[in-house]
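TASK: fixed-backbone design
INPUT:
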């Protein structure tokens, strides 16, 4: 099998000239281009990804380090990243960090060892200092759903505080004053911001924030069940429940129905993310749209812009939207 070095030797040109021809650069002299193309035809040479990497000092591959594989949320993100990069003739290598510092570092080292040109990361366990050091000293990164001071232009994120505010404000506007909350993990930036938005909406209308009406979950469906049961033991007075993601809202709906409640007449519930199954629940889930597909596209575009010097527009911050369905209705005193 012919090599790029043999092409250069037969054509009587430098390796860098062959590189420019392989990568479609327009700066090559037409006469030299013809010599390279003739040599490629004579040797039946077909440039592969390794040859392109040797010629351009790029692997044309991007690493994707995400938290989990088993949720629609990350499925949408992976699909968006892969589609955007494939359209630019780049490839994606995926690994998972499971929100664990050792596993995130292991995944990082794995992707770097595969000669990725850049990394797109949805990580929670790595510290801000570690992320700044990785971007400065090792490999360019783009971050999804996280803001790191000093790397703001590398971050693609949702205004989670606004999302939390919109969810609770919607319930308030429906007449609810006793609003419980199943929050996300206190060590996750997005969960903290969503809870801050919940508090802001309560404060805005003079409603007190009560710790007895907040349960900290872990974004899983079973924690939606546990959260509803815990809140019910603490107080039976809440008429509405805001959940930090749709999985926990789904669990809460199941637990409420098992407890004999009629939904949404006895309890209004609102989720967050607007994942695929949200409109299949009964009642159909009112939720906050988290445009993770578009954020995945933007993370890939940020890499194309920063690493591959492509002229693309990058949007760093997305604004959440309320998606009204059937699970939240006006409160009627009984």
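OUTPUT:
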């Amino acid at each position: 099998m012919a090599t790029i070095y043999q092409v250069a030797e037969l054509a009587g040109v430098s390796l860098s000239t062959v590189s420019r021809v392989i990568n479609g650069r327009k700066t090559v002299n037409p006469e030299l281009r013809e010599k390279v193309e003739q040599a490629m035809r004579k040797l039946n040479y077909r440039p592969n990804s390794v040859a392109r990497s040797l010629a351009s000092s790029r692997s044309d591959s991007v690493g994707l380090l995400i938290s989990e594989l088993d949720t629609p949320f990350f499925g949408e993100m992976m699909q968006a990243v892969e589609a955007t990069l494939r359209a630019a003739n780049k490839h994606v290598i995926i690994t998972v960090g499971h929100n664990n510092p050792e596993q995130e570092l292991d995944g990082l080292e794995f992707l770097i060892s595969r000669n990725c040109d850049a990394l797109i990361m949805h990580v929670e366990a790595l510290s801000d200092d570690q992320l700044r050091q990785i971007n400065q000293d090792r490999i360019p990164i783009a971050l999804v759903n996280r803001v790191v001071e000093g790397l703001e232009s590398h971050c693609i994120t949702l205004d989670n505080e606004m999302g939390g505010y919109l969810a609770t404000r919607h319930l308030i506007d429906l007449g609810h004053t006793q609003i419980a909350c199943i929050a996300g993990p206190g060590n996750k930036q997005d969960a903290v911001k969503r809870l801050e938005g919940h508090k802001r909406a309560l404060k805005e209308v003079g409603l007190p924030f009560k710790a007895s009406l907040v349960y900290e979950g872990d974004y899983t469906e079973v924690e939606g069940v546990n959260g509803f049961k815990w809140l019910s033991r603490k107080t039976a007075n809440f008429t509405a429940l805001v959940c930090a993601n749709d999985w926990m809202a789904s669990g809460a709906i199941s637990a409420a129905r098992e407890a004999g409640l009629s939904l949404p007449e006895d309890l209004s519930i609102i989720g967050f993310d607007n994942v695929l199954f949200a409109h299949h629940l009964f009642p159909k889930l009112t939720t906050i749209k988290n445009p993770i597909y578009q954020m995945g596209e933007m993370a890939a575009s940020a890499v194309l812009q920063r690493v591959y010097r492509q002229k693309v527009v990058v949007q760093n911050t997305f604004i959440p939207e309320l998606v009204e369905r059937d699970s939240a209705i006006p409160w009627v005193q009984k």
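COMMENT: The chain has a mean pLDDT of 93.
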